[in-house]
Amino acid sequence: MRRNVGNPFSVIYDQLHKQALFVFASHPTLNTVGFILTLGELWQYGEFSRPADNLLSSWSEAKDPSWTRSARKVAVKVHVPDFLRSLSGNNWFAFSLMDMNGKSAVAFKFIADLIKARESDFWGLPLPKPTGQ
């Protein structure tokens, strides 16, 4: 994986931002939206937290002509967990599916444990042991 070049995922962030806002508006009890982006062999995990200024009026992306304007006013930033930031070893916190060092597998395990711990009540799962955080 190359280092110190432009973030290959940045072209997708605007669409991802809009989709996260739409999900938050559609599901008022949802507090976090996680995502995995892939481009070829590269992948990245991140999360959006529900915006504090709640954009939750009843609208739909397809019917609301102000969607683009209103979506840009709401600050929803991508959060990458600290463990994944340090594990990735690059500026855009991405991993390679062709990784021979096992970082990608460790990252996937961390994400699975994170989701299981966050949603254990919902799924009736036992709490996992944390991955080397």
Question: How would you concisely characterize the structure shown here?
Answer:
The chain is of the alpha+beta class and 133 residues long.
How would you sum up this structure, described in words?
This protein has 133 residues and is of the alpha+beta class. The chain has a domain at 10-98. It has helices at residues 13-26, 67-73, 82-88, 103-118, 120-123; strands at 32-39, 42-49, 94-96. The chain has a three-stranded antiparallel β-sheet, sandwiched between helices. β1 (32-39) and β2 (42-49) form a beta hairpin. α3 (82-88) packs antiparallel against α4. The model has no long low-confidence stretch (mean pLDDT 79).
- The shape, in one word, is flat
Biggest sheet record: 3 strands, antiparallel
Write out the strand line-up for the largest beta sheet, numbering strands in chain order: 1-2-3
| Distance between the amino and carboxyl termini | 23 Å
Strand content: 5-15%
Number of helices: 5
